[in-house]
Amino acid sequence: KNFYRDDLAFADGTKADDDWYQWRGGFRVDSGAPESPYSFTIQGDAYNGNADATTNIPATSPPYTTDISNPSNIRGGDLLTRMTRKGTDNSEMTLQAYYDLARSNDRLLGDERSTADLEFQHRFQATAKQEFTWGLGYRYTRDSLENSATFSFAPASRTDMLLSAFLQDEITLVDDLLRLTLGSKFEHNDFTGYEVQPNARLLYTPHKHHTFWGAVSQAVRTPSQADHDIRISSAIAPNAALPAPISLLPPGLAEIVINGNEDFKSEKLIAYEVGYRTQIHDALAFDLTAFLNDYSRLRTTPASAHFITANNSGDPALFYQLNYEAGNTMEGNTCGFELVADAKPLDWWRLQLAYTYLRLDLQETGQGLFASEDAEGESPRNQISLRSMMNLRSGVTLDTWLRYVDTLPTYGIDSYVALDARVAWQVNPQVELSLVGRNLLDNAQPEFGYLFINTIPSEIERSVYAQARMTF
């Protein structure tokens, strides 16, 4: 597989210098006789490519920032083997081993990372109404980083190990009516030690066309290497242009630095979910899901204990250093719902309409570099999606996707409407020809932004491409 994507555009219409290409190849082999309880799979992939970007980094001369072209090379490969044994009692055991090697480098950071993963899983029928699944896992990760003045890690190389286990018990309380699933995941990582993530789910089906369900679960996001070890040169400015008290000190350039924190804790989530699905007619179904997520210890960047220090970067042009560090001083909740209507007005035509509502309410207990309002404004409050899928005559299909996305205040992105379309012709069972158009309503549309990483956001341009697919 090989592809090339040319440059997107900035808001002023100039090219973003962010073209990229990649080739990828792989294989998969499955073996196992139909009468044998054992089956084996081995598969592997290799890839190599370049991805360019335009990045804004701090500078020691006015206007104290500069744009650089930042090409990166990304290459690597992986190998997976899996053995499965199916028992005559409907049990199943799986042993899987996986290895991945990935290398990337650009002007700001280089990374070589190897990951080895071993997993075992056993599923069996504990009783006539109880299916039990358990498993064990081990992951070994080693990486080596090449630092720059903008992004650096200390240490630049580290080895981490993750031990995990999980249990799941699916219990039929009342046949064809009520089913309960209980489970938990247990982990030990090198950053925070032991973590437990339990969950419970109840499924109630009073009628074959009506299903209700509810779930409660706890999850954590364990610290990453960046949370723990990174140093980011975020900005440079004359101290007189910054808030007090640094503006009251003798004139000099100040560097704003975000540091990792060895005491960073896991972010915690308790999620509550309820849902309802009904099949009103063979050609009409509705799904409604509502959720409330309670977050604590969310990542922030509060001022460190030694907020103003002499600069330690080694650059004689820099005099002061304002120190922020990864912290866990934000909490709050998100709530919302999603409604999906799936209709088939004709045998050859399917429609799917979806509406999603999301509200974020976050509070920061300390004074950080980024306000909680920034996090609240990173996600759209309302989204609407309408998909149309038509199977026309003579093997021709026509699919369209119309969607509305609400504003993203943090990045200054207005709400927008986008349209994608695809027409395809199945020439024969082996050959398909298609024509695809994306973002057809605008020449270019901004859809994202960055807070921590200073890659200059580009806009998604209108695009049209043809595709031929052959199956052997």
Structural notes for this entry:
The protein has 472 residues and is mainly β. It has two domains: 2-380, TonB-dependent receptor, beta-barrel domain (Maltoporin, Chain A, Beta Barrel); 381-472. Helix content is 2%, strand content 67%. The protein has a 20-stranded antiparallel beta sheet. Strands 10-15-16-20-19 form a five-stranded mixed beta sheet. The protein is globular. It starts with a strand and ends with a strand.
Number of domains: 2
SS strand fraction: over 45%
Low-confidence residue ranges: none
Which CATH C-level class of the largest domain is it?
A: Mainly Beta
Q: What Rg is obtained from the alpha carbons, in whole angstroms?
A: 26 Å
Cα(first) to Cα(last) distance is 15 Å
Percent helix among the residues? under 10%
- Largest sheet data: 20 strands, antiparallel
Overall CATH architecture of the largest domain: Beta Barrel
Work out the number of β strands.
Answer: 29
SSE inventory with pairings:
Elements: E1 2-5, E2 20-31, E3 38-51, E4 54-58, E5 65-69, E6 72-86, E7 92-105, E8 110-127, E9 130-146, E10 151-153, E11 157-174, E12 178-189, E13 193-207, E14 210-221, H1 225-229, E15 230-238, E16 253-259, E17 267-281, E18 284-300, E19 303-310, E20 318-325, E21 327-346, E22 349-364, H2 372-376, E23 382-391, E24 396-405, E25 416-428, E26 431-438, E27 444-445, E28 460-461, E29 463-470
Parallel strand pairs: 16-20
Antiparallel strand pairs: 1-2, 2-3, 3-6, 4-5, 6-7, 7-8, 8-9, 9-11, 10-15, 11-12, 12-13, 13-14, 14-17, 15-16, 17-18, 18-21, 19-20, 21-22, 22-23, 23-24, 24-25, 25-26, 26-29, 27-28
